[in-house]
Every structure is written in structure tokens, then in C-alpha cells.
Amino acid sequence: MNQKDWDERCRKRELRILYRTKRIEHEQSKRRPRREETQKKEIKDNQKITEVLKTDKKKGVKPDKKPGPEKFLELYSFITYSPFDSRSSIHSSWKPRSFNERKQHLEFIKSFIYPYLLPETLLWASHCEEYFLDHKGKKIKTSDFEIIRMAKNWIKDIVSGDSFYKRNKQHFTKAEAHCFLSSKILFTDSVSVMKMFFYAKSKARALGHKVSLIIADVFTIKFPQHFKNSLVMSFLDLLSRTPEYGYDRGMLGDLSDFVLEKIQENKKIKDGSLHFTFSGRTITSVIKLTNEWHENLRREETARRNQRDAFRRARDGNRINEKPLFPGKWDGMGITQFKYETDDCVWTVTELRTSQDLLNEGRKMKNCISSYADRCASGSCSIFTVERIFPVNQMIEKAATFEVISSKRTLVQAKGKCNSAVSLKTMNIIKRWAQANSIKTGVLV
User: Fold this and answer.
1) Of the ranges 102-116, 165-179, 371-385, which one carries the lowest mean pLDDT score?
2) Which end of the chain is more exposed for a tag (fewer CB within 10 A), N or C?
3) HEC secondary structure over 323-348
């Protein structure tokens, strides 16, 4: 290759290198703004993510599984100073050893307030809210306000170091105080304190565990406002005098309704006449009195109905301007009629919202449900009836009547005809209805 050809080859090579570098620079100049845009977008996205994370942290901070002493100090601030108290020396860095919430509370109580065992039912009841806010933002006492306050006072009496019995002579005997402090009633809600109270009263009267539980269940439902009444205690004494009698919840529920009626009668007596008492009576005589009371209720309602019918027949005039014969009506819980179809019939559950409905129900079911009119009108309870409709002949058959405590939406009582036990099929329908309407099925009496 001569010199001329070599020079030509080198020149072309240089031209190619120059062309390549210009092309690369041109492509890089196009890519640069895109990179800047993507970088800006990435920065903005990162800023948004950090902001979202910050707000999420503010909104929902995961609770510490081992909280510090502040939580427990605030929760148990109602307990006044006692000889065992060492809350003033607690270090701010203290934390419970266990992750279990129940054990954390017990560890704090045992370490800084009271070194001995406390009834856990009282402890958990003291955590319940005493007030709630209405739609106007006003604080209103809950229905269990008195029970929660009483549980807190009993805790104060226990940790004070003094005799619990001496501080509560108006509520307990020595045996009852011992049974109360050693009872193992499980906590479900604040009403468990009442169940614990009646269980201790029964155990102190030498009644067995099973019977004491049944009495505690029924008395907690029937006598939450009358647990201090002497007639209730004398009724409990009567039950303890005949422990061999086969008590069940249904029978005790009927007898308790009779006791409630006598409590109201004793309150009305002001002329110095004798009050009703259970002293000197037997359980069979009280059952007889209860049956007679049910029968008298039916007779009174029948007489009232006949009197209204006679007045209606004797009254002439315009039927349009006629006043209703039985004005007792109430709104009830507002639950619509429930229907459930089976192969042979259609089950219905209907709320009774007039005194006339209660009267008819008591007449057909042969029970004292008409005496619940005042309680239904005041809104403390609601009465429902269960019926079976047979599609072949459209015959309607009454199956059961049951009671619901309106404020707690809890089913507490269910009876068949003549206050008999409810059949299993009917009970299944009642449970379906309760589940559909968010009603709790409590202890049935």
C-alpha cells in the first residue's frame, strides 16, 4: 500500500469517529430532559410516600404490647392510698413482664397496690364505662352505673387493709363476705358483680354449687334493683331451708315474678298494716300462692275485658268518634315481624305493643304476661310471641312467649303454654330471630 492510499484510509477513519461522537452527543442531548423529568417525578413520588407514611403513623399507631405505668396509674387512680401502696416510687421506665393483658393488670396490682389476691370480676368491672355521651354531647349515667361504683368501692375496702366484712356489714355476714371474696364467677360484663353477690349469698346458706349458680343467674335478672330488699333475702332463706327441692330456672323465674309483685305491694302499704313476709312459710305454700296469683291476674283481666265489652255495647253514637277501648300502646323496640318457612309450617316472631295484645297473649298462653304492661310501656322490656302458621288450613298455633331487656338487647325469659319449658324446635327459631336482630341470648328463666 502506497502513502496516498494510507492517508486516505486514515482520513475516512477519522471521519467515522467524528460522526460517531456527534451521533452519541445528539442522542444524549435528547435523553437528558427525559432523565430530568423522570428524576423530578421520582422525587415528587418519594415526597408523597413520606407524607402518607407520616399521616398513617399519626392515624394508627400500633399499641404497645407492654405499656408503661401511665396506663395502669390512670386506670386505677380511683383506689385511694393504702398501707401496701407503692405507686409513688414506680419508675417511669417500668414495664410488665408478660405480653398477656390480664397478667399485666394483675402484676401491676400485686407489685404496687395490693400484694394479695383480688376478685378478678370486681377488677374487670371497674374498667367498664360509667357514662356515655348522648347526641347533644351530654354525659349520662349507664344502666349499670351503680354496680360499677359498688365494685370500685368494694375494691377500695379490700385493699385498705381493714376487715372487708366490718366495712360492709349492711351487705354481708362473715360467711357471705368469705364466700364473696373467694368466689370464682367469671366476668362477662358489669352485671357479673351481681351474679357474684347472689352466688356468695347462696353458698353461705350451705346450698350446692349448681343450685347456687341457678339462683345467682335468676336473681341477677330479676332483682338487680332490689338486691338490698329484705323480702329477696327472706325468699333466699326459704330456698335454703329446702335444698332437696328440685329447683330449675323456669320455676325460680315464676316465683321471682311473684316476689317482685309482693315487693311492689309492700311499698304501697302506708297504713300500718302487715307486710308480706316469707317467714313461717314453706316452698310448697309459696308455689301455691304463686299459682293463685297467676290465676287472679287472669281473672282480673277477664273482668276488665268484660266490663269494657259491656260499656261498648251500651254505648251508642257515632263509631267514627269512638275512643279506643284500650289506650295502652308503646313503640317497643321497632323490630319488624320475623318469618321462617319450614316444610310443614311458617314460623313468625312478632312484638306485642299494646296492653290488649298482652292480655290476649296471657289468655291464650295461660300466663301472667299481662302484668308486664307497665314495664313494656316504660321501655324497660319488650315482649314477643312465637306462632306457627300451617299453610294447609291457615291455622295459627301459639308456640312461645319471651321477654327481651330493651336497653341491653338481651333475651332473658322464654315460656311455652302454662309457663312450661320451650320446645327445642321453638328455641331454634328464637335463636335464629335473635341472631338476625343482634339480640344476645342470656340465661333463660
Assistant:
1) 371-385
2) N
3) CCCCCCECCCCCCCCEEEECCCCEEE
Rounding to the nearest 10 degrees, give the CA dihedral for residues 280, 285, 287, 289.
-100
Rounded Cα distance between 58 and 110, Å, is 34
Contact, 371 vs 385, CB < 8 A?
Answer: no
Q: Which of 299, 314, 329 is the last residue of a domain?
A: 314
For the chain, how many structural domains are there in total?
A: 2
pLDDT of residue 330: 87
Host H or E run for residue 133: strand 131-133
- pLDDT, greater one: 226 or 58: 226
* Whether residue 353 sits in one domain with residue 259: no
Which of 273, 280, 275 shows the shortest CA–CA distance to 265?
A: 275
DSSP string, 60-84: -PPPPSS--HHHHHHHTTTSPP-TT
Q: Average pLDDT, stretch 248-255? A: 87
Residue type, 441: T
Whether the Cβ atoms of residue 82 and residue 114 lie closer than 8 Å to each other: yes
Distance CA 24, CA 437 (A): 75
- Average pLDDT of every residue of the chain: 84
In a domain, 420, yes or no: yes
Cβ–Cβ < 8 Å for 155, 79 = yes
Range of the domain at 365: 338-441
271 & 344 share domain: no
DSSP-assigned letters across all residues of 419-432: GPPPPHHHHHHHHH
- Give, as one character, the DSSP assignment of residue 277: -
